[in-house]
Design brief:
With 87 residues, the chain is of the alpha+beta class. It has a domain of 36 residues: YefM-like fold (3-Layer(aba) Sandwich), CATH 3.40.1620.10. It has 3 helices and 3 strands, in the order βααββα. Strand 2 and strand 3 form a beta hairpin. It is elongated, with a radius of gyration of 25 Å. The relative contact order is 0.10. The model has no long low-confidence stretch (mean pLDDT 83).
């Protein structure tokens, strides 16, 4: 178990995160109190919100008007000209 101050946590955040991911418990002293940190793994088979949204978009499929969409071609030079067009 690692005991550090909040200032030391800020200085060595990534090293502390590595120790947490290795299963070690970390106690952080701050303003007279102590915070206890430990890694918690997601349950097996858990689906993240991001994965749920991606799966829903994939299930909807391709939009019918996708062929009408023109994102432009970056090699055609249109993106280089920033001058306003005259009406």
């Amino acid at each position: 178990m690692l005991e550090i101050t909040a200032t030391d946590l800020r200085k060595d955040l990534f090293k502390v995160l590595d120790r947490l991911s290795d299963g070690e418990e970390v106690r952080v002293r701050r303003r007279g109190g102590t915070l206890s940190l430990r890694a918690v793994s997601a349950p097996a088979g858990a689906v993240t919100d991001h994965q749920r949204k991606f799966d829903a978009a994939l299930a909807r499929g391709v939009r019918e008007d996708w062929a009408d969409f023109d994102a432009g071609d970056i090699t055609d030079g249109r993106h280089i000209d920033w001058t306003p067009q005259d009406n």
